[in-house]
Write a structure and sequence with these properties.
The structure holds two protein chains of two kinds. By secondary structure, chain A is an alpha/beta fold. Chain A has 24 helices and 19 strands. Chain A has a five-stranded mixed β-sheet with strand order 12-11-15-13-14. Chain B has a five-stranded mixed β-sheet with strand order 2-1-5-3-4, sandwiched between helices. Chain B has a four-stranded antiparallel β-sheet with strand order 8-9-10-11. A two-stranded antiparallel sheet of chain B has the order 6-7. Chain B folds into two domains: 75 residues, Ubiquitin-like (UB roll), CATH 3.10.20; 120 residues, no CATH class. The chains are: A alpha/beta, B alpha+beta. Chains A and B meet through helix 17, helix 18 and helix 19 of A and strand 4 and helix 2 of B. Bound molecules: flavin mononucleotide.
């Protein structure tokens, strides 16, 4: 398979350089420039060849990625220095550069195209359909892939009510976390006879480690615009706002360009495509707090107020931005709308589970082999996502839990790995879909410490308006910290449970109401670990320093000396090829020895 | 709008809050951040109640929940009692240093917790901020977030908006706002005000900017002497008496 069959009659060839944030950070801009330079005036290349900078392909672990079409070749971890070889071998001579191909870590097999890899095979790209395939700054690229056809169809062939009906029938539920049926939201807003109405795109994406919305905003901004314009037509809105997380510079840049181009092409502005619809969109940069992603806090922030939520007993669809009826949807929700309108609700609803239709984008991170962005049909099991797509646990370690739903999600244990992932199953399991964060944890993870970690994040990000959230999370944090330090008391578990229940029931917004999830889910599935900390002053994972003592199992130790050489505290001694020992008085419990022992000889007492 | 509150059938006005309706018919719901003058803030969550609408039950803050449908309300279930006990416990843990909180902590049989700062008094009910807004000064607000949240003037400096009226301190339930009164001066929120002195009884009665503010707001020229409210009332009474005697 080393020889590439380049058909000489290809009219043009396209080279796509991934310029998503991850690849850019690894130098893909230089790769792109080197390619453009190399192509310029190169008369040794037979077919006409273009280079394009695209959005994120998802396989960030292997970036920068370079794809060559129509041959369907994917090169991984490409550096600017590799460009001459790619040009000479592949473009001029029609040969593959094997060392740059994707290599399966388990089977050691090389793949010509990323499409053939397990990472991609189980995925289904709907929301991410264009990302990595188009130049996000080119409206023509979007049009070439069927862009704005849904808008034309809606404006010319459908009534506003029919558009809403179609979204309802698709079964689409909001991708920002709540999972509220999008069609119902639009219908409710359209029914409030109090114009002007507003449309908002929530691009705050405050979950640490999440980047699905970012990749859509950066890699396919027109799909978000098209979704919003269709909604404006359906509900009769005059103005739209895209609220973008302040750090997302590239998203802001690409969106700004997309809005300008859409205005030039008549997709935004007065009498869109000759219809009665007049609608325009404005960008708003976020306030820099996690809670500003909560819709009422976000509305406050757009209005120039402090980003604090209010009680939503009257929905924003009735009283939202400046007191007017408002539809607010998440970036990924918007990206699904053009597909639903263009290809029909039935098509969309054929993907997914009974209660959750379509696909969901996850950012798969943590101790998994292939980290990156993945889009799978709803109902795909956790095991498929983590093992088939994600390639299993790094360094051959043991799976322990997967944390879904962002900081206020829950931890799901191994015996639930066959859970088909959708809004309802995750909630039943004590976690949530959230916006699609998925963090895989291995056996070197202390679940009490994990709970403490997330609760600490939430304590810092609570806006502090209501008592249960501000003070309750603070008490949870104090209690968990105490347990991790070995000062836990048996009655602490009752306190955690009672306070968690109060926070869930009485907090003002969903930040507070979901904040106890990390505590309650770990208490539910890993209670033994809490009890070990409290009753036996022992952290079974060897993470909480006050409760950890490492030792070396003399039977298993081969005396390779790796741990001794790497120990930063000189706490390990032993002769070559003889069992080593750890001096507990010197040990600083960094865990380096246990993490790196090839023979599993380092143990936690 | 027919509503039942703790089994009592009442007629509620469309859009009024559960708390308002309950007060009207004499059902007590505990609150910490509520004042009739400002309406509900939804901050303290002591006023959570259970709302049953058809088959659906949920807990809501009665101070912000507007009645728009026929509902059944329970204000004192065991579940709500636990929530209130926990809220009082949490606030006592944060700010134990007032008789107000000590009393509530006893009354609600709070859980034993380690106070964060034994000297703290502020429970962040924000009534002071509301009072300041109502006065029209907008000198203080709730700043920062999470447990760092506190009431302050911008940049913790003397606010040009503050007129030293001390409405904030007057409404504070825990005495957390300090007003220093000394030698005809009053200090509050990093700012020292000259006091206005009554020409009749000699008492210092308000800060100079408050005097100005009152004149502006009421659009009156305070004629002649500078009098404290008490002496002004007395003078007014005697003026009226004079007028009627002279008639
Ligand atoms: C603390 C908090 C943070 C949130 N952050 C986001 C966010 O970053 N992006 C988002 O789309 N929704 C976020 N949400 C959910 C929004 O409140 C809202 O439900 C969503 O934008 C509605 O859009 P959807 O129906 O399309 O999901 C957050 C909610 C909470 C409570």
């Amino acid at each position: 398979m080393n020889q590439l069959e380049v058909k000489p009659n290809h009219e043009t060839r396209m080279i796509l350089v991934c310029c998503g944030t991850g690849c850019l950070a690894n130098g893909s801009a230089a790769v792109y420039e080197a390619l453009c330079d190399a192509l310029q005036g190169n008369d040794k290349i037979q077919v006409e060849t273009f280079a394009k900078a695209t959005g994120c392909n998802g396989l960030c672990e292997k970036g920068p990625l370079v794809k060559i079409l129509p041959d369907d070749i994917t090169y991984c971890k490409v550096k600017a220095e590799d460009v001459p070889e790619i040009v000479e071998k592949t473009l001029q001579q029609g040969e593959l550069v094997q060392r740059l191909l994707y290599r399966d870590p388990a089977t050691k097999k090389y793949y010509k195209s990323h499409h053939e890899t397990d990472f991609y095979k189980k995925q289904k790209k709907v929301a991410l359909r264009n990302i990595g395939e188009i130049d996000p700054t080119s409206v023509q690229d979007y049009l070439d892939r069927g862009g704005y056809q849904a808008l034309e169809k809606a404006l010319k062939e459908m009534s506003p009510a029919e558009v809403i009906e179609e979204v309802l029938k698709s079964g689409l539920r909001g991708r920002g976390g709540g999972g509220f049926p999008t069609g119902l939201k639009w219908k409710a807003c359209a029914a409030v006879d109090n114009p002007p109405r507003y449309v908002i795109c929530n691009g705050d994406e405050g979950d640490p480690g999440a980047f699905m919305d970012r990749s859509i905003l950066e890699g396919d901004p027109h799909t978000v615009l098209e979704g919003m314009i269709i909604c404006a037509y359906a509900i009769g809105a005059s103005n739209g706002f895209i609220y973008v997380r302040d750090e997302y510079d590239l998203a802001v840049k690409n969106l700004t360009k997309a809005i300008e181009n859409a205005r030039e092409c008549g997709y935004l502005g007065k009498n869109i495509l000759g219809s009665d619809l007049s609608f325009d969109i404005e960008l708003v940069r976020g306030g820099g707090a996690f809670v500003c992603g909560e819709e009422t806090a976000l509305i406050n922030s757009i209005q120039g107020n402090v980003g604090e939520p209010w009680d939503k007993y009257v929905f924003p669809t009735e009283r939202g931005l400046w007191g007017q009826p408002t539809v607010i949807n998440n970036v990924e929700t918007w990206a699904n709308i053009p597909v639903i309108i263009k290809d029909g609700a039935a098509n969309f609803a054929s993907i997914g589970t009974e209660g959750s239709k379509g696909t969901k984008v996850f950012s798969l991170v943590g101790k998994v082999v292939n980290t990156g962005l993945v889009e799978v049909p709803m109902g795909t099991t956790l095991r498929e996502i983590i093992y088939d797509i994600g390639g299993g646990i790094q360094n051959g370690r043991q799976f322990k839990a997967v944390q879904t739903g962002g900081p206020s999600g829950g931890c799901i244990p191994e015996n639930l790995l066959d859970l088909p992932v959708d809004f309802d199953t995750l909630t039943e399991a004590g976690s949530m879909m959230g916006s699609g964060g998925m963090i895989v944890m291995d056996d070197r993870t202390c679940m009490v410490e994990v709970a403490r970690y997330y609760v600490n994040f939430l304590a810092e990000e609570s806006c502090g308006k209501c008592v249960p959230c501000r003070e309750g999370i603070s008490l949870l944090l104090e209690t968990l910290t105490r347990i991790c330090e070995g000062k836990g008391k048996p009655e602490d578990l009752d306190l955690l449970e009672s306070m968690s229940s109060t926070i869930q029931q009485a907090a003002l917004c969903a930040l507070g109401r979901t904040a106890p999830n990390p505590v309650l889910s770990t208490l539910k599935y890993f209670r033994d670990e809490y009890l070990e900390h409290i009753n036996n002053h022992r952290c079974p994972a060897g993470i909480c320093k006050e409760l950890t003592e490492f030792y070396i199992d003399a039977e298993l130790c081969t005396g390779c000396g790796r741990c001794r050489r790497n120990c930063p505290a000189d706490a390990i001694s032993g002769e070559k090829k003889k069992a080593h020992t750890i001096d507990p008085a010197k040990c600083i419990k960094c865990g380096d020895c246990i993490n790196n022992c090839k023979f599993q000889a380092v143990k936690v007492k | 709008m027919k509503v039942t509150i703790d089994g009592k059938n009442i007629e509620a006005k469309l859009g009024e809050t559960i708390l308002e309706a309950a007060k009207r018919v004499g059902v007590e719901i505990p609150t910490l951040c509520y004042s009739e003058a400002f309406g509900g803030q939804g901050v303290c969550r002591m006023c959570m109640v259970e709302v049953k609408e058809g088959e659906r039950k949920r807990l809501v803050a009665s101070c912000t929940y507007p009645i728009t449908r026929e509902i059944e309300v329970q204000t004192n279930t065991p579940e709500l009692q636990e929530i209130r006990r926990n809220i009082i416990t949490l606030l006592y843990r944060r700010a134990p240093n007032s008789d107000y909180m000590k009393k509530l902590y006893q009354e609600y049989e709070g859980i034993s917790v380690e106070p964060v700062d034994p000297a703290e008094k502020c429970i962040m009910c924000r009534l002071c901020v509301k009072a300041c807004e109502k006065v029209g000064a907008y000198a203080i607000s709730a700043i920062m977030r999470g447990t760092e949240k506190r009431i302050a003037t911008p940049f913790d400096e003397a606010s040009p908006n503050c007129i030293g009226c001390s409405a904030c301190a007057d409404i504070c339930p825990t005495g957390a706002i300090i007003v220093k009164k000394e030698n005809g001066k009053q200090e509050i929120w990093h700012k020292t005000f000259e006091m206005s002195r009554c020409e009749n009884c000699g008492k210092y009665f308000s800060t100079l900017p408050v005097n100005e503010h009152v004149k502006e707001q009421l659009d009156i020229e305070m004629s002649g002497e500078n009098l404290c409210p008490n002496c002004r009332r007395k003078k007014l009474a005697s003026d009226i008496a004079e007028v009627s005697v002279n008639r």
